[in-house]
Design a protein that fits this description.
235 residues; 5-stranded parallel β-sheet; Rossmann fold; hydrolase; single chain; 9% strand; alpha/beta; signal
Length: 235
């Protein structure tokens, strides 16, 4: 009898050890649950600031989303900040008749507002409102163009800068003033590492795109501007 009990006892103890280890593993699993990996975050949408005149502000488009700046921003996946103001230019300021406000700054003055938005991209478009000043004082106009791009690069050293030249409706053929002005914008933008897109070489507008005021364009004209810019950005 005694020898039989002695034989069974170790077996029972071994069984208790196995149960204890198993229970310990189970408790350990409860104490340290698996940690799931964090969900991936969506990439931040690049911010693009648009500086320009009435074309840039969307004048002539039937709805804001059909304005050329909106079309380009949508096509490129940018979050647009539109600082376009009617009647303005690199040198030209505007008021109630042009932009609907008491005062609208020129492009150089608008740089500070652009910098505040900390954009990844800055698009500066237009210049046709400076043509009169350019013929009267080309040096002052050239200085304003250069100062605009110099200030942008100083305030936004890592931003992509894109210059879009002046818009000339089909009723106004591009002449020496507009082509020379376009070349100055190109030179100034490229001097700070920016790029330039011309809307007059070759011209993009047809008579069907021009509004009755002979100065602005309709939805088709805005689409033509956007198409030219998108094509250039894709190169």
């Amino acid at each position: 009898m005694n020898s039989s009990r002695a034989t069974r006892a170790p077996r029972l103890r071994r069984g208790l050890v196995v149960l204890a280890v198993t229970a310990g593993l189970g408790l350990s699993g409860c104490a340290s649950p698996a940690v799931s990996a964090p969900a991936p975050t969506k990439a931040t949408q690049p911010i693009a600031v648009f500086i320009g005149d009435s074309y840039t502000s969307g004048y002539g488009a039937s709805i804001p989303t059909l304005a050329w700046a909106s079309l380009v921003a949508s096509g490129e996946g940018w979050k647009a900040v539109n600082l376009g103001r009617g009647g303005t230019g690199y040198l030209a300021t505007s008021g109630l008749n042009g932009c609907g406000k008491e005062y609208c700054p020129n492009y150089q003055e608008m740089v500070a507002e652009a910098v505040k938005n900390r954009p990844d991209v800055v698009v500066v478009a237009g210049g046709q409102n400076d043509f009169t000043a350019f013929t009267e004082d080309p040096d002052a106009t050239r200085a304003a163009i250069e100062a605009t791009y110099d200030s942008l690069r100083e305030g936004l050293p890592d931003a992509r800068i894109i210059a879009v030249g002046p818009s000339i409706p089909a009723a106004r053929a591009a002449g020496p003033t507009s082509t020379t002005f376009d070349a100055l914008v190109k030179e100034a933008a490229e001097s700070v590492g920016g790029s330039h897109i011309s809307l007059i070489d070759p011209p993009i507008f047809t008579a069907a795109m021009i509004l009755p005021d002979a100065a602005h364009v309709n939805d088709e004209g805005h689409a033509a501007i956007a198409a030219r810019i998108e094509e250039a950005l894709a190169d």
